[in-house]
Pyruvate kinase (Solirubrobacter deserti), 466 residues
Amino acid sequence: MLERRTKIVATLGPATDGDGMLDRLVAAGLDCARLNCSHGTHDELRQRAAAVREAGHRAGRPLGLLFDLQGPKLRLSGDVQTQTVEVGDVVTFSATAKPDAIKVEFDKIAALVTERSQIVIGDGVPRFAVERVDGEDIVARAVSPGPISPRKGINVTYARPELPAITEKDEADLALAVEMGADFIALSFVRSAADMQQLREMAVALGSKARLVAKVEKIEAYEALDEIVAASDGVMVARGDYGVEAGVARVPLMQKDTIRRATQAGKFVITATQMLESMIQAPEPTRAEAADVANAVIDGTSAVMMSAETSVGAYPLEAVTAMATIALAAEESPLILGRAKPTPQSQTSHAVMQAAVELAEQVDAAALVIPTATGGGARICAKYRKRRPIIALAHAEGVADQLTLEWGVYPTTMETADSVDEMIETALTTARDWAGLEPGARVVLTSGRRTGTPGATNLVMVREIP
């Protein structure tokens, strides 16, 4: 059981509905299910969220549930005439319908543009440099060729903050996520830490304790990465729209740097978009895709994610199986990059957990065993990317579900004990039964003088499994 450290996220959709497919995905290695709020009705999302909870109970293990909010998405009007532009062509974009202009479905489109802005259509082409703004019109010159067609997505790089970070649709979807008890809520097109602070205020006001994920897919987000990481519980390297904005050549180094900086801060990071894209229609990945997944694992990503591969693809089970197999093989690398470096800690609990990680290495412990009220201790240990399994024994089912994206953490639940001695004995037997540890195996166990109390961990001990 204690094998693969990197977690697997799969997007649910029509391809995963019915016929026991979700149970098979869980058996194949699924750790967290993603619901993309850009697709499907609220009733469909409710049904899939409920199915995730039922599948987790049937499997007898925690299973994460992630709601992915659409965020502010710009599109061309449905009345736009299909055409192909060449380099050097001058095009006018406008918020209103005009004979010689391309209409954008956002009435403040001209106010978004700055002198650094480019306008990008679809998946990256065509791309336009802005020449000037005339009232509601943007006059731009094509710097790369490509097609323009109705309802195509549009990106404005280095945009002014005229778009709302959280739209009315996002507010409705957020309420649904809270209703269904989402463990993770991701926000698309994050531009600043303030966007994540706004999401947190709204989620808390609705009574949610979900972990919040910032999707890094805007140039502005990457430039403000440290502040966004600090305001979030985790980040997603959303390579699709970032590649559209910055160009595909900029994606690899952004991915590696984001993984490194998020890990240093002790935040989980999901690498996403086109990881096994060919498996939408093929039962086996390409060699390049296998290398892409492996490189993300070696970079130290906490999780790898599939989108259309599982939601609408012809081979969802094969995709999850392939992802698990590739990740496990990549973890044989002698060095996992991006790991946090041990540094002096001002908080006692952080210092204790850092010491526990080092002690487990020195005594060659079979595992770290961490009873936890909030999951904080396990998260601290995960950022060091040691190969020692971290067995997190959460006092609440929701906390265990929220640990399903943490690298090398194997969560389950354990009742809160009345005394420290009882807690230690219960933790050892629970770890033995849950993780299949052999009697006599040496483990490092952390504890506090008060059981079930957040932030009270101040003891580290070496014990043997009974």
